[in-house]
């Protein structure tokens, strides 16, 4: 279903992995999209890739959200802005431990700058949050009523603090409505293989490391521990196809536009409701692609959660959204993207 009129939506971090896929889904759902990105973790050529997929070139502004004056000026130049999807943030757990001030500056100060810039205007805002707020869950699958535990990293803490800031601001500032989407583990790429995950340097996530190893860019894969309390001893995560995740953002915006929110701040888990172990992902990749992986079992990694997957009943019932793709779909699309960028390098 297309929206009745072309609502204008600002996507911060819109040339990044999740951002680019969400821009595609927004455009294909009839939204007019404006992108802000400082290109610190993405490539400007993604704009052309989006245009190839959708036939529409999104408006792009190179801007760092830490530039308070610049952010205010840009927002003032967009008087018809109705929605914001806020992705722009640093996301490496390991990097956040090494440089916490960078993460508080880039993830918290930027959010405050954005909120100050839109203050006094009616805006629907979707916030990129994370299942990291749950820590090691007491009960599985974990639902939105589970306690938010002490963060294991500055990155995780910025997601907790971000949610708190947004909840308090939405209750204090007239016209602001917020939906926080707590992602599980997004993987895969668009069916066109024209956009996908494009990590700078050594990938911090499992699937891009697998695909880069399989194509010869990386060496041996390390599975961190096989002695956990799981069926095969490796950690379990809820992996979700990136396109399914992108569609959840569209569903969240439509919920706000339709006036269906029960309060000015809502939270939804976005996952498949199913967990897969690291070794299951490795085996599934080999089965789907026919490529044998070179991997070894290493020691446990400090801070790793043993197992987590989400209860997504609330998103299904209230957003009208359900993940459609399975693990095989995710890995096949990730491999198609890896082969594409091997032949058409971005960097």
From TrEMBL:
Superkingdom per UniProt: Bacteria
Keywords: Carbohydrate metabolism, Isomerase, NAD
Enzyme class: isomerase
UniProt KW Protease keyword: no
Residue intervals of the NAD(P)-binding domain: 10-332
Pathway(s) this gene product operates in, as recorded in its UniProt entry: Carbohydrate metabolism; galactose metabolism
EC number: 5.1.3.2
Keyword Isomerase: yes
Cofactor(s) the record lists: NAD(+)
GO terms for MF: UDP-glucose 4-epimerase activity
Catalytic activity: UDP-alpha-D-glucose = UDP-alpha-D-galactose
Oligomer and partners: Homodimer.
Similarity section: Belongs to the NAD(P)-dependent epimerase/dehydratase family.
Protein name (Swiss-Prot/TrEMBL): UDP-glucose 4-epimerase
Species annotation: Mucilaginibacter ximonensis
């Amino acid at each position: 279903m297309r929206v009745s009129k072309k609502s204008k939506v600002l996507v911060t971090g819109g040339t990044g992995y999740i951002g680019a896929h969400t821009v595609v889904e927004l455009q294909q759902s009839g939204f007019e999209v404006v992108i802000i990105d400082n290109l610190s973790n993405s490539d400007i050529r993604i704009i052309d890739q989006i245009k190839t997929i959708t036939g529409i070139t999104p408006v792009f502004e190179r801007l760092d959200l830490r530039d308070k004056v610049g952010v205010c000026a840009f927002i003032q130049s967009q008087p018809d802005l109705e929605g914001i999807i806020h992705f722009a943030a640093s996301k490496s757990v390991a990097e956040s431990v090494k440089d916490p001030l960078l993460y508080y500056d880039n993830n918290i100060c930027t959010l405050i700058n954005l909120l100050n810039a839109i203050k006094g205007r009616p805006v629907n805002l979707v916030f990129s949050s994370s299942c990291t707020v749950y820590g090691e869950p007491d009960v599985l699958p974990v639902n939105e009523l589970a306690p938010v535990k002490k963060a294991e990293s500055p990155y995780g803490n910025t997601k907790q603090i971000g949610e708190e800031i947004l909840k308090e601001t939405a209750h204090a500032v007239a016209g602001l409505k917020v939906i926080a989407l707590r992602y599980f583990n997004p993987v895969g790429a668009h069916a066109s293989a024209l956009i996908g995950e494009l990590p700078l340097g050594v990938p911090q996530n499992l699937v891009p490391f697998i695909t880069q190893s399989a194509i010869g860019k990386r060496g041996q894969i390390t599975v961190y521990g096989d002695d956990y309390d799981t069926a095969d001893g490796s950690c379990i995560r809820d992996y979700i196809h990136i396109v399914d995740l992108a569609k959840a953002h569209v569903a969240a915006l439509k919920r706000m536009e339709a006036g269906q929110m029960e309060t000015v701040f809502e939270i939804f888990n976005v996952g498949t409701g199913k967990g897969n172990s690291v070794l299951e992902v490795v085996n599934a990749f080999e089965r789907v692609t026919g490529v044998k992986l070179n991997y070894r079992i290493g020691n446990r990694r400090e801070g790793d959660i043993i197992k987590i997957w989400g209860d997504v009943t609330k998103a299904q019932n209230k957003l009208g959204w359900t993940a459609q793709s399975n693990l095989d779909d995710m890995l096949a699309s990730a491999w198609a993207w890896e082969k594409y960028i091997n032949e058409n390098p971005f960097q």
